[in-house]
Amino acid sequence: MRIACIATSEVPSRKANSIRVMKVCQSFIDLGHSVRLWLPGRSPGISWGDLIDHYGIRDRFPIRWLRGVDKLHRYDFCLLAVLDAVIWSADLFYFWPLQGAALASRLGLSTILEIHDLPGGRFGPWLFRNYLRGSGACRLLPITDALRIWLEREYKTSLEAPFTVVSPLAADIEHDTQICPQRMRRGENLDWRRHSLLAILDTCILVEGLICFWNWPGVIRRCVSFGLEVNQRLLSGGANAS
To answer: Given pLDDT bands bounded at 50, 70 and 90, which one contains residue 221?
Structure first.
């Protein structure tokens, strides 16, 4: 199957969304599919060897950088990317930007939307409804079940399996098992634990914010208290390891 992945992330970058995009492309290749990635802007002129080292991926795949007009907020990029992918005869369109997903779905193209946050801005809700109403919408991939529930309530629609599949952000087990054990034996895992703590806090804030947004002072107090407790345990664990 030919899969067109269309994202607005910066590549190369250490940002989580950038890493997610490259890992998803690698996963499709591992499953035996042919993948192309479309990104906005100019090519950074980085070699594939550097990209492989930077992201911990194994295979090369074509990346198309398309320049657009900043004031158009990626709408022009999404349109050009969809047209280019149609010319490539893509069988499936995998989107991160909502603008492109709504367009492809309305055109009847088989479309998957990975969604990390609530549709925002002036046109976000309208675009999300158009994605759901389009004949091409195949799957919706929210990163948490709390987000799925909120979308159901806000848009008054059923978002159950198999159409909706919760796709959480996860650790790179293959990469971590190659690096962390040696560092942990030497008691050098404190920075790695702190990164894990930040991920935990991000998830807590998201879930609590979605479910208990009307009581935000209490949410903040619980998150801060939880963070201090976990951080103290991590610090104690790091001191014992050394």
So the answer is: low
Residue 199: C-alpha distances to residues 9, 16, 190, 205 (Å):
19, 10, 14, 10
Q: What tens digit of pLDDT does each residue of 112-155 get?
A: 999 999 999 999 999 999 999 999 999 999 999 999 999 999 99
The pLDDT of residue 229 is above 90: no
Residues 6+ apart with CB under 8 A from 112: 92, 93, 94, 95, 138, 139, 140, 141
- Does 145 or 233 have the greater pLDDT score? 145
DSSP 156-209: T----TTTB--------HHHHHHHHHHHHHTT--HHHHHHHHHHHHHHHHHHHH
144: nearest Cα among 119, 125, 164, 172? 164
From the options 3.10.450.50, 3.40.50.2000, 2.170.150.20, 3.40.50.720, give the CATH code of 2-155.
3.40.50.2000
Tens digits of residue pLDDT in 169-216: 755 555 544 544 444 344 444 344 444 444 444 444 444 444 444 444
d(CA 152, CA 164): 11
Among the listed residues 63, 78, 111, the one whose alpha carbon sits nearest the alpha carbon of residue 8: 78
3 state SS of 43: coil
Q: 226: left (phi > 0), else alpha (psi -120 to 50), else beta? A: alpha
